[in-house]
Structures are given as C-alpha cells and as structure tokens.
Amino acid sequence: MKGLLLKDWYMMKSYCRSYLLIVTAFLAVSFMDDSNLFFAFYPCILCSMIPITLHSYDERSHWLQYSASLPCSRAQIVSAKYLIGLATSLVMFIVTGIAQVVRMRVSDAMEPGELIALMAVLLLLALLMPAITFPVIFKWGVEKGRIVYYVVIGVICAGGVIIAQLVDTDVEVSLPAGIAVPAICAAVVGLYAFSWYLSIVFFKNREL
Fold first, then answer.
1. Dihedral over Cα of 89, 94, 99, 100: its sign
2. Angle 56-45-148 from CA coordinates, rounded to 5°
3. Which residue of 22, 93, 192, 207 could cross-link 131, Cys pair, CB 3.0 to 4.6 Å?
C-alpha cells in the first residue's frame, strides 16, 4: 500500500502541478470577492478530480495490467485512490476553511453559523462527486467515469440555481443547522465509504 501511495504522490508532483496554480488563483479571488461562492467551492471540486486524473494515467500507460504481476491486490489499488482523494480533499478543505475564516475576520463579518454551513457544503462537494464517479471508473474505465462526473457537476449547479431562485422568491426552505449539518456530513461520509466498498467489488470482477 505504501508503494502505491508513493507512486501516486510522484505522479501528482509530475502531472498535477498546474492544479496548485489554479487553486491559488481561485482562493485569492474568493478572498477578495465573497459575493460568488463558486470561487471558494471550485478548489474542492478541482482537487476531487486528482485521483481520477491519476487513474487516467494508469490506464493510458497500461499500468493496471502490469500491476497484476506485483504483490498488491486490486483492493489495495482501489484503496490507494480513495486515500489520495481523502488526503487532497482534506488539505483543500482545511486551506479553504482557513481562507474563509481570515476573510470573515478581515471584513469583520465573522458568523459561526455561516462558516459551519459553508464548511458542510465544502465537505459535500469534496466527497460527493468522487463517491459517485469512482465506482463507474473502476467498473467501466475513466472515459465513462468522466461523463458521470460532468453530469453530477451539472446536477449540482442546477440545484444551486433552483435554491437561489427559491431564496429570491422568499420561499422559506429551512432546517435547523444543528440537525442539517451533522446529517449532511454523516450522509456524505457514509456514501463515500459505501462507494469505496462498491469500487473494490467492481474492480475485482473487471477484466483488464
């Protein structure tokens, strides 16, 4: 497992350097302009694509076939990608959270409730899309997985537009934060764990 994680780490340093520049730019914009939360959300969305990008390189180089001769199981190969996804999402989650706290402090608009809700949405974005996309990737390959990924992004964006319209028309849609936030976090974490298990089952039965 350690070797698989090191391989992915070296690949990240070689192929994902541009992600760092993009994430920095979006965080800077989100710090200066809080009217559009997309700039705060996008870094988490982008980082959730890193394991997909790494798996794409694995498929192109035929590394998956080569891995059959190595002392590692298919479950470990899947788990490595999920762990990389958790690590990158956790780092981006923390960095984005710190940036939002600093922004609220500087603008003298610190609201704990708003911050908690924002972090819950960040967690949702960081884990939901890979949780839905990974099983498709490990069953049918990266190309079909990317299609699902973009469909999920479209659904989330459409949901955001609908919610914004409901707010603009003063339709009251509320749920106590003490119930909503823990429920969202528990549901997303549970879905990610189930997706992990499902991907292992699919990949074990897939012909390479």
1. positive
2. 55
3. 192
User: Cβ contacts of residue 1 below 8 Å, gap of 6+?
Assistant: 72, 76, 79, 80
The structure's pTM equals 0.79
How far is it, in rounded angstroms, from Cα 16 to Cα 47? 10
In the chain, domain spans: 2-204
Structure tokens belonging to residue 112: 């704990």
Write the pLDDT tens digit of every residue in 100-130: 777 777 777 667 767 777 777 777 778 887 8
Residues 6+ positions from 46 with CB-CB distance below 8 Å: 19, 22, 23, 26
Contact indicator for 59, 142 with CB cutoff of 8 Å: yes
